[in-house]
Structures are given as C-alpha cells and as structure tokens.
Amino acid sequence: MERLQKVIAEAGIASRRKAEELIKNGKVKVNGEVITTLGFKVNSSDRVEVNDKLIEKEAKEYYLLNKPRGVITSTSDDKDRKVVTELIDTTSRIYPVGRLDYDTTGALLLTNDGVFANIVMHPSTNMEKVYLAKLEGIIKGEQINKLKNGIKLDNKLVKASRVKLKKVDNTTNKSLVEITIHEGLNHQVKRMFESVGFHVEKLTRERIGIFDVKNLKSGEYRRLTPKEVQIIYSYKDK
Q1: pLDDT of res. 43
Q2: What is the predicted pLDDT for the residue at 236?
Q3: Spans of the chain, pLDDT less than 70
Q4: 219-226 long-range contacts, CB within 8 A, separation 24+
Q5: Helical axes 114-121 vs 226-234, angle rounded to 10°
Q6: What is the pLDDT of residue 163?
Q7: Secondary structure element (H or E) that encloses residue 178, with its range
Q8: Distance between CA 220 and CA 59 in Å, rounded?
Q9: Catalytic residue selected from 101, 103, 113, 237
Q10: Number of H helices, E strands in the chain
C-alpha cells in the first residue's frame, strides 16, 4: 500500500505537493470515487484517475550501475551535467536509490519501485556498504581502531564494522583501505577518514548489500534478477 499523492508523483503527473493540492481539490478518483483525504492509501490493483484521466502504471524496473566519476546521482541537474539516469537505456521514470558523490564511483541501484528503494535505504535493513578508499598518507592501526570504535558525525556515533588495510605505498605516501559501514550519512566515508586525519583521494563503492560491481566496467549496468528483487523484499518482513 502506498500513499495516493506518492503514486501520483511517481507516475510523473505532478510533484508530491501538487498532487496533494489535486487531492484536496477533488480532482482525484480511486476506483471511481472522489478522494479528498491526504494520506489515503492505494495498492497496485486500484484504478487511480487524475482529472478523469487514468494513471498508466509502469512495469517495475531494477538496475545495478557501476557509476563512473563525473556523473551526478540524480534525475536532473541545473548545471546541465550528466546524470546517472542518462546511462540507463529505458523510457521508465527510474531514479537512484540513495546517492554517490560526483567523484565517487561504484555500485548504485536505480528503480521506479518506491517500496524497493525504501527497503534498501531504511536504517532497519542494516545493509552493508563496502568502499575502497585511496588515502593521502599512511594510515596506522591507531586510526583504524578509531574508525571501528566510532566517529561522531551529525551528533550520531557511526562505526566501521570492518576496516582492512589493502596496500601501502611509502614512495607515493598513499594507503588503500577497504571499509564497511551500515549507515548512509552524507559524505560519510570521506568525513570518517577526515576525522582521523586523512583526505580521501579516490573512493569506490564496491558493494551494497548483495550487489557488487565486480563484473561491470565503469558506466556499465545490468538488470536485477527476480530472485535478487525477492531477496530485498524479504528484508521488509524482518
């Protein structure tokens, strides 16, 4: 079940706020009955009309993209920069699930299924996010332990569940570190490393939950399998 204004917005009829105005003004019908109550919920079998025009329901689509650098995690950009949805060959109104920074690469899910997106992003799902970070400087055990014990960001204690030093290059003064987190705060990984004195030169999300990009080149994508979608939906009942 989803809120009526959300269904209207996701169908591309109007923004969420405009959809609420349409409902309050009696312009929306569900199964032939005018609905003026905000928060009214509908399911996939309900017939929804806006201004007497039936909303066409899109088939649900699910993609895993290996996001390249220099692409915006959004559906549009006011500076006319390339956005991730332009990389997917579809006419459906898909959108990214969560976000990766402009200069961050790696695993990104995209869909037009709001329930799926909410499950992936909801804190209760506790989904692992694995990043590979190239740092300026040589990180030591003391700093790694601080990341594991917890860093305070936005008045919240966040911890790395795993930190693995993959490579050290004393010649260039660089470290390559794999870090696993469960939260999804804004710029979280970069800020965690900065809090222990390291600038992240390059960042890649290698995996989110069960989805990794080992077999996808930069800019490549694939559709999720029905089994993968089912696995994500199974989190909803936990």
Answers
A1: 86
A2: 77
A3: 237-238
A4: 219/65, 219/66, 219/67, 219/68, 219/87, 220/65, 220/66, 221/63, 221/64, 221/65, 221/66, 221/87, 221/88, 221/110, 222/63, 222/64, 223/61, 223/62, 223/63, 224/62, 224/63, 224/64, 224/109
A5: 60
A6: 98
A7: strand 174-181
A8: 22
A9: 101
A10: 6, 17
Assess whether 237 carries a catalytic annotation. no
Give residue-wise pLDDT tens across range 120-161. 999 889 999 999 999 999 999 999 999 999 999 999 999 999
- Supply the pLDDT for residue 50: 96
CATH topology of domain 62-124+213-237: Alpha-Beta Plaits (3.30.70)
- Per-residue confidence (pLDDT) for residue 237, from 0 to 100: 67
Structure tokens at 215: 């077999």
User: Given this chain, do its domains 2-54 and 62-124+213-237 carry the same CATH topology?
Assistant: no
- CA 15 to chain centroid: 20
